[in-house]
């Protein structure tokens, strides 16, 4: 089995600061199967359409430029500024104020009123390729090549030159003008021109539809978008852009207030089978193409430590847990910590569960009840 990539211009920068100018906004598959009944969804980001059956969200599409003239098409999903978060209808993440160095670039109003990104380019022409491992051992994959690659200066996080606040603005198309992208207003985009999460993109209407991934936080299902990772292999598995600059983000084994990151727990060897209610993890995702159902830390309103930057904590069910029938669907970090204390969960190779230093940008769109 091999998975491969097969109405109006967005607002300008007419009001001071990012909030005014922006106008006032899975692993291998869109999501895991949703509940049979219609879920109750609490949206954390203002959208132009959330389709849980299709596993997609439609968001405002924004337009900027590079100093060299290339068009930059992006969405905004998080900021460290509470007032801008309310004005834009995006997530407030105070932790983003901790970003510095290569992990954040600068941008501000350009001479034509568009957002001007000082550095950072993306190549969308590579073809995403993921080949599961042979036989009954799908993970690790035999091949994992991302479908888009940022240069050493690309990061989705920028600091507004006027307000000095930080915004999470994943780039979805680069170096292509709006009229060329308008041919994808009805879908079927050319993935040599756009991000792998794009389902449809329509500059003339100022919107883009993106594929969602399902996971869990504090026991509740959530939906989010994986857009970048500093690991090429993880970017390939997530259908995200490889952004090496994110490696400049400090992370630690614990979830510390001074960090810009939150933990994400990634099950390596969970139960498999689409009809198995405990199905979860990388081996399952590579076998059936559904989401791995990762478990994350705080999201609004579950805790006050939300960040879209997730630091991967791989977890492995022990032989004892599997033999004893203890391998279940994990939904909560506290449960994971308890199972790890009991020796039923470990890190790879029997090591303690902890951060592996892989960063993924995963803005949360909503949670289900």
Instruction: Let me know the average pLDDT.
Output: 88
Largest sheet: 13 strands, mixed
Extended strand count: 29
Structural class: alpha+beta
**Any idea how many domains?**
1
Shape, per Cα inertia axes:
globular
**Terminal CA distance:** 34 Å
Strand content: 25-35%
What ranges have pLDDT less than 50 throughout 5 or more consecutive residues? 1-37
Question: From the structure provided, what is the oligomeric state, counting identical versus distinct chains?
Answer: single chain
**Helix proportion of residues, in percent?**
10-25%
What is the C-alpha radius of gyration, as a whole number of Å? Answer: 20 Å
Q: What is the number of helical segments per DSSP (H or I, 4+ residues)?
A: 7
Question: How would you describe the overall organization of this protein?
Answer:
With 369 residues, this protein is of the alpha+beta class. It has one domain (3-368). Helix content is 12%, strand content 29%. The protein contains seven helices and 29 strands. The protein has helices at 17-21, 82-88, 178-181, 232-238, 282-288, 319-323, 333-341, and strands at 3-4, 41-43, 49-51, 56-60, 62-65, 71-74, 78-79, 91-92, 105-109, 115-117, 122-123, 129-131, 143-145, 148-150, 157-160, 166-168, 171-174, 198-202, 207-211, 213-217, 220-224, 228-229, 241-242, 262-267, 295-296, 309-317, 345-346, 359-361, 364-368. Strands 2, 11, 14, 20, 21, 22, 23, 24, 25, 26, 27, 28 and 29 form a 13-stranded mixed beta sheet that branches. Strands 8-7-16-15-9-10-5-6-17 form a nine-stranded mixed beta sheet.
